[in-house]
Amino acid sequence: MKKFTADLIYTMNGDPLKDHVVITDNTGLILSIERLSDHDVSSVRHLGDALIPGFINAHCHLELSHMKGIVPSGTGLIPFITDVVTRRDKIEKNIHQAILDAEQEMIRGGIVAVGDISNTTDTFELKTKGNLRYYTFVEHFDFLQHDNAQAVLDQYDKIFQALSPPTGNRKAKVPHAPYTVSSELFKLLYPEDDANLTISIHNQEMIPENQLFESKTGELTYFYRNFGIPLDNFQSTGKTSIHWALPRMNPKMRTILVHNTICSAEDIAYAHSWSDQVYWATCPNANLYIENRLPNYKLFIEASAKMTIGTDSLTSNWQLSILEEMKTILKYASYLSFENVLKWSTINGARALGFENELGSIEVDKRPGLVSLDFKRRQHFSEITTATPVY
Ligand SMILES: [Zn+2]
Predict the structure, then answer these.
(1) Which residues have CB less than 5 Å away from ligand 1 (the ion)?
(2) What is the pLDDT of residue 135?
């Protein structure tokens, strides 16, 4: 049995607790939460400024870890994707070592679960070890070429079948983004009606994505032309990309919309009218790395959106740290409270991935991981210095 306390304990279930102790067994299972005054202080480990549940990284591409520092920052998404597509197999770096190192970085930073995109099987061996809990999203795209949809599905089915997730881990087949998935491929991806699945899709990360759907103009049309991919069969709809993707998906499933950098209030309201199972994953450091901009968080707060936080990959980020993502959000949107953003990075992420029975909050019978936070100035939440996992 172990006992932990901190100046404030954020259980994520009600107000933060002062003068309390969290009691766990030797595996980190929460046995009880009690008053500190009922315990001999010498039997309790005092951790500092705050104790929180482990972080949930709602969006990552662990398999792109070997491309750290390769693609220049600040170019915009289309040059970025072009670089990734043309260079990912040509980097002379040990892909598997980079994946192992990236996982260790996440563990050291207090992350306990990851929503991770896979286009290959590169991460699967590691995932079966169960060091972290993964929801693996095997990602599909046919570049809007519906004649290829069945072949794409067959090709990725091999990858999907290659992963046997350990107990408590999950996997799902998902679309990449509105601008890379044809109607036909969307149809093939959702033959079943499993409301217990989580689906992820990149959404509205750049202005050209909306331009393609609104008027079949803009940089994405040049991108397709450069790669020799015809858009003859693609018709613009006069509406933003989210209006095209969501009706082709299943509103009963939990759906994580990733990035949302150029989402408007109308786009958010539309998604909420489509389903009450919509989660929004923000990856602020990746947005700054690639596009030099951030989503307008005010719009999401005003719509009571269920926000989660992701790191994206080391190709588009300087590190894989949810703490660094929280610092960026609190720096550029200081109207947000620490408590609010902490909710995004813990319980909301756990709910989005369907892991909330065990993770995301400090409650009896959960094994959420425990992380100790320290602040430069006491309880000055925009100046968090370290997050140290204690479980
Ligand atoms: Zn991504």
Answers:
(1) 312
(2) 98
* Mean pLDDT within 174-198: 90
Q: From ligand 1's centre to the CA of 217, what distance in Å?
A: 24
**CA distance linking residue 20 with residue 372, whole number of Å:** 15
Q: Contact, 309 vs 279, CB < 8 A?
A: no
**What spacing in Å lies between the alpha carbon of 279 and ligand 1's midpoint?**
15
CA of 232 to the centre of ligand 1 (A): 27
Instruction: For residue 38, report the distance from its CA to the centre of ligand 1, in Å.
Output: 47
What's the CA-to-centroid distance between 54 and ligand 1, angstroms?
Answer: 22
pLDDT for res 262? 95
Write phi, then psi, for 188 (nearest 5 degrees): -70, -30
**10 Å Cβ neighbour count for 233?**
12
200 vs 334: CA distance, rounded Å? 28
* Cα angle for residues 211, 232, 260 (degrees, 5° grid): 25
Structure tokens at 323: 């703490």
- Please give the angle made by the CA atoms of 333, 278 and 245, to the nearest 5 degrees: 105
Superfamily of domain 55-359: Metal-dependent hydrolases (3.20.20.140)
Tokens for 146? 């519906």
Fold topology of 1-53+361-391: Urease, subunit C; domain 1 (2.30.40)
The token duo for 382 is: 């925009």
Which pair of tokens denotes residue 255?
């759906």
Q: Where are the alpha helices (DSSP H) in the chain?
A: 77-87, 95-108, 124-127, 149-162, 183-189, 207-215, 219-226, 241-245, 265-274, 284-290, 297-302, 322-332, 338-343, 349-352
Domain range annotation of the chain = 1-53+361-391, 55-359
**Residue 242 near residue 270, CB atoms below 8 Å:** yes
Could you read off the pLDDT of 257-268 as tens digits, one per residue?
999 999 999 999
Residue 199 φ then ψ, to 5°: -120, 145
